[in-house]
Amino acid sequence: MKTPNLAYRLKMARQSAEAYLRDNGHTTLPIDPFAIAAKHEIEVKAKPDTAGGVSGMLLRHGNNFGILYATHTGSEGFERFSVGHELGHYFLEGHVDHILPQNGIHTSHGGFVSADPYELEADHFSAGLLMPSGPFKELLRRRKPGLDTVSFMAERCKTSMTATAIRCGELSSDAVAIIVSTGDVIDYCILSEAMKSLPELTWLRKGSPLPRNTETARINADPANVLRGERASSEIDVLDWLGGKRSAIVTEDVLGLGHYGKTLTVLSSESIGQEDDDGEAEKDTFDRWDAPRFKR
Amino acid sequence: MPEGKPSDIFQKRLKTAREELRKWSQGELGAKAGLPPTSIAHFEAGARKPSFDTLRKLANALDVTTDYLLGRSHDPGLAEAGDPLYRDVGKLTGNDRELARDFLEMLAKRSEEKQKK
C-alpha cells in the first residue's frame, strides 16, 4: 500500500479532529480537551509541577485509558495542547501499532524522534481540535493581521502563542509569515497562501541564518531581551526577510518567548496577495517549508 | 503470544470473537459497537487499522478485553499488566516510569471495580 505523504497525513489528522468536533456538537471556542477525555471515560491526571520528563503519556489497562500530562511549564496552553496530543494518539487510526509496546517492552523506533510522523500527526490533531478551522477563520477574518491578533486568538482558544501563530499562518487570508528563531538561526517559517503569492521567495529553512537589519535580529542579539519577553514592532521591506522579486512593506512584530529561549516573529500585510491572481500559489507547504512543531 | 503487529492480530481476533465467541454478524457487532457494518468488514479484512477508541468500543461490545483483541492475552476476559503507550522509552525518566506505574495501578483498580458491578 502506498504511504501518503506527510503533508497529506497531517492535514488528515487536523481534519479528523475537526470532524470529531462537528460530530459531537462542539462549535464554540475554547474547546475543552479535558471534557472530551472525560466524555470518553479517559482518566486525566496532572503530573506534579516539579516533574519534568515527557509532556504527556497515554496509558491503557484492559479497557480503561488514562492520560498523564506535564505541568512544569506553568502554561495552560501547553497543558491543553499536551492533552489534545494524547487524544490524537487515542483517536487516530493506525497509532495502535506505533505506540503500543511490544511484548511488554516499550519500543523506540530509534533515531526518528523529532520528525516522527505519528508524533507530528498527534500534534496536528491537537491543533485541529483546539483551533478548528471553521470558528478560527471566522474570528480571524474580522481582525487586522499581526501579533495582537495572534495574542487575541491564543486567549480565545486558550492555546500557546507559538501554536496559535502557526495556525494563524495556515488559516489567515491575509499575507502572514510566522517565523520562530533562536539566536541568529531560523527554527521554522510558515507562510500564509497570500504571502506565498509573492514571486520567487527565498525559503527560510530550518538552520538558515536570521536576516540582519531586522527587528528580530536586534532582539535576538541579547538573550536577555528574549528571556524578559521583550516585544517590538516596526515596518520593513518583505525583500529583507523573504527575498523574492517584489518590494512591499510589511509589519514585523517580534516577541521574546521567555524561558523557552526562542523568538516569535509575525510579518503581516493586508495588501500583499489581495491583487488579481497573477501567479500560482505554492502547494503543499510542508514539502517545502520545515514542518512546524506546535508543541510550545 | 502471537507474532505480528498488534493490528494484524486484531484483524484475526476480531473475527474470532465475533464469529466464534458471540456468533454475531458484522451488522450485529456494528450496531452494538456504534460502528457501521462496513467498518467491521474493513477491520477484519485488514483494509483499515483501528484507533484505540474503536478498539475499546469493539472490546466493550464483544465483552472481551483490548488485551485479547491485541493478542496480549489468550483469555478474552483477562487484562494484562497495562501499558504506558509512549513510544520513545529512552526519554522516560525514572520519575515518569514511577508516575506511569502508579497511574496504571489506579486504572487497574477501576477495571476491578467495573467488573464487580
Report what the structure shows.
The complex is a heterodimer of chains A (296) and B (117). Chain A is of the alpha+beta class and 296 residues long. In chain A, the strands form 2 sheets. Chain A has a 5-stranded antiparallel sheet with strand order 5-4-8-7-6. Chain A has a 3-stranded mixed sheet with strand order 1-3-2. The longest helix of chain A has 18 residues. The radius of gyration of chain A is 19 Å and the shape is globular. With 117 residues, chain B is an all-alpha fold. The longest helix of chain B has 23 residues. Chain B has 6 helices and 1 strand.
Topology:
The complex is a heterodimer of chains A (296) and B (117).
Chain A: H1 6-23, H2 33-39, E1 42-46, E2 56-61, E3 64-69, H3 76-91, H4 95-99, H5 117-130, H6 133-140, H7 147-157, H8 161-171, E4 175-182, E5 185-191, H9 193-196, H10 215-220, H11 223-227, E6 231-237, H12 238-242, E7 249-256, E8 263-269, H13 285-288
Parallel strand pairs in A: 1-3
Antiparallel strand pairs in A: 2-3, 4-5, 4-8, 6-7, 7-8
Helix pairs in contact in A: 1-5, 3-5, 7-8
Chain B: H1 6-21, H2 26-33, H3 37-45, H4 52-62, H5 66-69, E1 83-85, H6 94-116
